[in-house]
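seq as requested:
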Amino acid sequence: MIELINRNMARYLRFRYKNIQYFMDRPFESQDRIFKDLIRLAKNTEWGTKYNFASIENWEQFNERVPVSTYDELKPSIIRMMYGQQDVLWPGEVKWFSKSSGTTNDKSKFIPVSSENLKKSHFKSTWDVLTFLYMNKPESNLFSGKNLGMGGSIAPFEGFPGTIIGDISGILLKNSPPIGKSVQVPDTETSLIADWNVKIEKIARLTQKENLISISGVPTWAVVLFRRIMELTGKENMLEVWPNAEVYIHGGVSFEPYKEQFKRLFPSDDFTYLEVYNSSEGYFGIQDDLTKNDMLLLLNNEIFYEFIPFDDFETDRQKVIELKDVELKKNYVLVVSTNAGLWRYIVGDTIRFTNLSPFKIKITGRVKHFINVFGEEVMVSNTDKAVATTCSKFGVTIDNYTVAPVFLTRGKKGGHQWLVEFNKLPNDLDAFKKDLDLNLQNINSDYEAKRFNDLALKELELVPLPKGSFYKWMESRGKLGGQNKVPRLSNSREYVESILSFINHI
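struct tokens:
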């Protein structure tokens, strides 16, 4: 029976691939269709009326007429939607709102998630993930067992009884079709537990005897769960717990710093890792080729993409460009218009194109999460790669890290301070630090130039933290699980000082 199910699903997924191939071959036609559909559907909303969507015929008019928006600029309209007002940014009533910060900031964002957005972006792209898995590994037995999802929680909005807020993963789980829930573990009730510590413990006890084939979730929190399961079972790795596990689907943070850890957790060359780019706003990309570490930009899931060259972002030179005008090896700020009412919305991520036929991308960082205090222009993709390379050489793994500048003072040069939580300390911490600094220089020429003869930057400072430090700090701020992430880089010392102060008082 299982073989028959897998065979039929494989046939269906091969058929789906033909539709995917269409937008890969006709990217501009696909995006133009979506652009016109979004404008047409929203023309009678308040936003559509304000900017006269009914008369917009092309992107040039859209670009001239409709402003690029941050969350703060859309927030008043979104709040009204949360209180049940209809036809504001999107036709009808939007009942679901994803609570997202993206960082550990106290300030939360509430991203509208319409029924159209759920169906034509999130769920549609989930099937695309399965399609690419089968195209890369046709021998896969994905439907012979269960999928473990690290879901978040949801809750009613106090201001209006018809509105639900929560993590996007929790919203997706609550709205999943029966076929999805039938192969998902843990059960919905457990997945939606708000207390992350309670949830981890219950998932660890419930899933250790399941026949798991696939696992999905943010690496940071997945590792916490896996360690607890190994504590409970006495097993040395996760394949001893789940011998039939085939694939880990990851996103949310860079996988580079976690690669070595996962190789030890799943010690098999046949175990597959697949990266996805999904967020509260929609599903943007999927790793379509397992031999390469970039992702296919999804151009057929009712999201219209635009881009701002990162070097010009928030300057007098800032301009928005179409897909047809992007170039390789440049960093862009991602701008999206969605079928949930986000119009020309700055997501907050920076990306770089690795291929233009078809269009493939890599996430390089966050708009707010980089260091450029001394002209070094260090991105998260730089530090993640430097960490991965250095850890591999020294045979160690890390759980988390964050970096902040050390500002110039009288008689002293500036630099970078790294707070690092090792799974196991390297034998020679000073040698690790020097190698990390050199690797970062090799990756980033601007950093290298500023480090030359200690011209503007001294060698990085590395502060090892006790195990569990980041987890406890996040817990103290009510930011465990889901979409909460430790900020990797910052131009200020806010996070670093907060962490150091917290560590000194526990």
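The radius of gyration is 23 Å.
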